[in-house]
Amino acid sequence: MITAKPGKTPIQVLHEYGMKTKNIPVYECERSDMQIHVPTFTFRVTVGDITCTGEGTSKKLAKHRAAEAAINILKANASICFAVPDPLMPDPSKQPKNQLNPIGSLQELAIHHGWRLPEYTLSQEGGPAHKREYTTICKLESFMETGKGASKKQAKRNAAEKFLAKFSNISPENHISLTNVVGHSLGCTWHSLRNSPGEKINLLKRSLLSIPNTNYIQLLSEIAKEQGFNITYLDIEELSANGQYQCLAELSTSPITVCHGSGISCSNAQSDAAHNALQYLKIIAERK
After folding, report:
1. All residues at 6 or more sequence positions from 232 whose CB lies less than 8 Å from its CB, including other chains
2. By C-alpha distance, which of 257, 260, 227, 230 is closest to 245?
3. Cα 238 to Cα 219: distance, rounded to the nearest angstrom
């Protein structure tokens, strides 16, 4: 008699059966259909002479259903004494969102569409010891999103979730490419800057960028909002050779722009980086 304790998942139940009969279940992914809204996975499980398949919106759920199908066959087989209460099946609709894996989902999506894998970079770490905050940049091809969290892992998840949220707005029948998914919402090109009718970018072309007390960070933010790119300030821990704070301003233009700044404080360094970024944008926008 092969028995299993109640409250176990189909995978656990089938694994116990395989251990006792020396037929360890083998799972293989037969198909993965990475549609943006409803991804579908199909897994095949083989245990002894029995082979079953299961389908689900996640790999885990598909494996559970394959295992459950195998268990049902074992129960129906009169030559096998298989006493086990109904195994617990995970209900994806009842799982809290924090149990999902946006990092894995984004990676699978990139593989499916032939994109380069997402790259994660820890850009900032701050806050008191009891309330740390981490900032991570996720780059996918020439685009990026920034995530924040109380841990490095949470910051990565947040950045991945932002990318997935962008993709979820695209209808499933559309052909997915990085150009039509993120388009101008995450970046802009030098060509679009030179030909933009935007008020802020044209004001920049006429500006001397030398007026005292100008808020360069705000000015850069206004241009970014108008032209559709993001700004990330990366504070550098090491002081410069002359003892000043340092900062990098990264713009999600295409190609990505990075400008250095320095000053007697972190805020001054950020302002200097924004000023240098504005000067660079001005040069690019004025070119014919």
Report:
1. 123, 135, 137, 144, 146, 249, 250, 252
2. 260
3. 27
pLDDT tens digits, one per residue of 148-180: 999 999 999 999 998 888 776 554 444 445 544
Residues of the chain with pLDDT > 90: what percent? 25
Query: Are 115 and 61 within one domain?
Result: no
Residues 134 and 213 placed together within one structural domain of the fold: no
What range does the domain containing 198 cover? 188-284
Cα 193 to Cα 285: distance, rounded to the nearest angstrom: 5
Task: Name the percent of the chain in helix, strand, coil, to the closest 5.
Answer: 40, 25, 35
Question: How far apart (Å, rounded) are the C-alpha atoms in residues 273 and 58?
Answer: 44
d(CA 72, CA 59): 20
Distance CA 102, CA 156 (A): 9
How many domains is the chain built from? 3
Classify residue 90: in a domain, yes or no. no
**What is the model's pTM?**
0.40
- CB burial class (10 A; 0-12, 13-18, 19+) of residue 141? middle
**Same domain as 216, residue 279:** yes
Hey, what are 210's tokens?
């030398």
Virtual torsion, Cα 188, 191, 195, 201, nearest 10 deg:
50
